[in-house]
Amino acid sequence: MVSKYVTYIVRRVVASLIAIFAIITINFILFRVLPGNPVQLLFRNPRLTLEQIKTLEAEFGLDKPLLDQFLIYLANVARGNLGISFFYKTPVINVLIPRLINSIILVLPATITAILLGILTGMIAAWKRASKTDVAILTTAMGLYSLPTFWLGGVLILISIYYIKLPISGMLTYGVTYPDLTSYLADFSRHFILPYTTLTLVTYGEFTIILRNTLIDVLTEDYIMAARAQGIPTFRLLSKHALRNAMLPTASIIAINLGLVVAGAVLTETVFSWPGIGRLIYDAILNRDYPVLQGAFIVVTISVVLANFIADLIYGYLDPRVRR
Amino acid sequence: MLEKASPLTSLLRFWSIYSKNKLGVAGLIIVVFFVFIAVLAPYIAVQDPYKTDPSKYMLPPSPEHWFGTNEVGQDLFALNIYGSRISLVVGILAALVAVTIGTSVGLISGYFGGIIDEILMRITDLFLVIPPLILMIVVGAILGPSLVSVILIIGVLSWSPTARVVRSMVLSIKEWPYVESARALGASNVRIIFKHILPNVMPVVYASMALATSNAIFSHAALVFLGVGNVNDISWGMILHYAFASGALSTGKWWYFIPPGIFILLLIYAFVLVSYSLEEVLNPRLRRI
Questions:
Q1: Is A323:A5 a contact under the CB 8 Å cutoff?
Q2: Burial environment of residue B100 by CB neighbours within 10 A (0 to 12, 13 to 18, 19 or more)
Q3: Reduced to 3 states, what is the DSSP secondary structure of residue B205?
Q4: Test mutation, A146, A272, A303, chain B, max B CBs within 10 A
């Protein structure tokens, strides 16, 4: 029993490592091999002296064959050396880490709220299937899913400008020193509300559609019919029998769709100037800061692979069948 | 199962089920509405969307400029109407690319199985894990902002969901008796795939196509908004990009920012409704009784 779970974990670890290796390889190909890649662009810069070009060549290992370049690159990434930012003039990894933490502060609460709300309303919709309540919940969820994230953020900014007067940019008021922790947290919360609401609403829409459909599939199973025939009260039937079985497929679907949450975060952070990885990506596009763009891509995709890995572990723990 | 329905009768039979689905019909009507706007743009918007006029800096809506003007004095109503063209074209073409790749991968993977299936599905999973928008941003930033490259980037990076669905359909269809009898009669793999399996997979492909279109419209708008796509071609994403970059949003110029978002929302919503209804029609378990 225990050993089966261990084999399962080992297999997931290997799969995740392969995914990470593939991501790093894709990254290498994108930035070195594609036509018009940034490294070539760098060398076409007429202001570079011959000596500077020599130094850069040595650093990238460009005088060596492609395979050697790839190995040098792998070794650098493994050591956390993601290059120097063109714009900030500091190592990319030092730019990325604080930004990643800021992103997690925004994404984690929003995703958890969206999942909880999604479970609640998805369950109601599935149970009252084809009723007015179901249609209302489903169309709302589809509407929220269809909302362009950046536009929803912009609409909230407009509402804030005209009515509710919440801060529309950044994580804290710029240049303010806080006398105590309470005023710091108060200022942070005021900045947090709008981006948090944006990300929660968009994510909620998607999860609710998935949850409702999964629950309907479960609710039409024979054992639910049997339980209903036995006269088990509605609430117990839903929470004890249906939800438990629906949670498993849902967990895996949520894990797969984490990539969409990341996309939502990039757009939300951009609109609200939230100093996370997403806003960093936007700034890197504007500044043509390729090392940062490359580093952000690696950090974000590896984070998603890790989140998937954690979801797999929980999934395997909950459902003994997948360990086989 | 063995009878061969002509394309027309199967289409009619399909329509008789689909037309009972109110949400699906509503979605279809919205799509047709936008196709009309795109085709008839020059007749709907009388003003020239390219014409700039520095004296008309960010004017609010008026009888002359229904949606107001932007920071270079262009008529926003004309820009919004013409913007429907690129969104529709990019959405549909990128979805075609994605669904074509996805269907081919799904067919090959499901039909041949074994090591081919294993390799193709690992690649599919990898593309499912990498957040598509981030990859599109990176590739787009490197390849440059031409319309063709944006269509290809969105299409080539969003085929994996289709591949998954098609593969699981193929896995069950290839066990059906008539496929086995075709094989026993000596039909080639190519013939079995195209003649016997593909027609049965097509309904799923249509549903994927509608969903892929809505995703492509969103991806395109998001890329252009972020400044990765072409911000010179008139599109809804381009209007939003300039509304944000010019500071119109943070100074409360609502007429600049609201309309293109509503159009994107409506069009995406329409395709989501169509896709959802197709799925409901095809999966009797979800069908309202």
A1: yes
A2: middle
A3: helix
A4: A146
Burial (0-12, 13-18, 19+ Cβ within 10 Å), B258: middle
Residues of B in contact with A19 (CB under 8 A): 125-126, 129
The pLDDT tens digits for A270-320 are: 999 999 999 999 898 888 888 888 889 888 888 888 888 887 787 777 776
**H or E element in which residue B248 lies:** none
Q: What SS3 state is found at B69?
A: strand
In the numeric block, the tokens 């912009």 are attached to A154
Is B114 buried (19+), middle (13-18) or exposed (0-12) by CB count in 10 A? exposed
Integer Cα distance of A183 and A164 in angstroms? 20
Would you give the distance in Å from CA A68 to the centre of its chain? Answer: 33
Residue A202 φ then ψ, to 5°? -65, -45
Report the distance separating Cα A214 and Cα A209, nearest Å. 9
Place of tokens 């011959």: A50
pLDDT top residue among A50 and B121: B121
Q: Which residues contact A156 (CB under 8 A, 6 or more apart)?
A: A194, A197, A198
**CB of B244 less than 8 A from some CB of A:** yes
Quick one: which H or E segment has residue A91?
none
Closest CA to A142 of A121, A158, A157, A159: A121
User: For residues A269 and A275, what is the distance between their CA atoms, to the nearest angstrom?
Assistant: 7
Instruction: Give the largest CA-CA distance in chain A.
Output: 84
Q: Is B286 on the interface with A (CB under 8 A)?
A: yes
- Nearest CA to A19 among A33, A11, A252, A257? A11
Label residue B130 left, alpha or beta by phi (over 0 means left) and psi (-120 to 50 means alpha): beta
In this predicted model, what pLDDT tens digit does every residue of A149-191 receive, in sequence order?
A: 999 999 999 998 888 888 878 888 777 777 888 888 888 888 8
Burial A120-131 (b: 16+ CB within 10 A, else e): ebbbbbbbebee
Give A255 to chain B, closest Cα distance, Å: 9
CA torsion B39→B42→B43→B48, rounded to 10°?
160
Asked if B133 is an interface residue toward chain A (Cβ–Cβ < 8 A), one would say yes
ipTM: 0.86
**Structural contact between residues B193 and B179, judged by C-beta atoms closer than 8 angstroms:** no
**Alpha-carbon Rg for chain A in angstroms:** 24
Joined together, the tokens standing for residue A45 give 């810069």
The number of beta carbons lying within 10 Å of the beta carbon of residue A281 is: 27
The pLDDT of residue B288 is 46
Contact B249 A147 (CB under 8 A): no
Query: Which residues share a beta bridge with A91?
Result: A84
As a whole number of angstroms, the distance between CA B164 and CA B128 comes to: 10
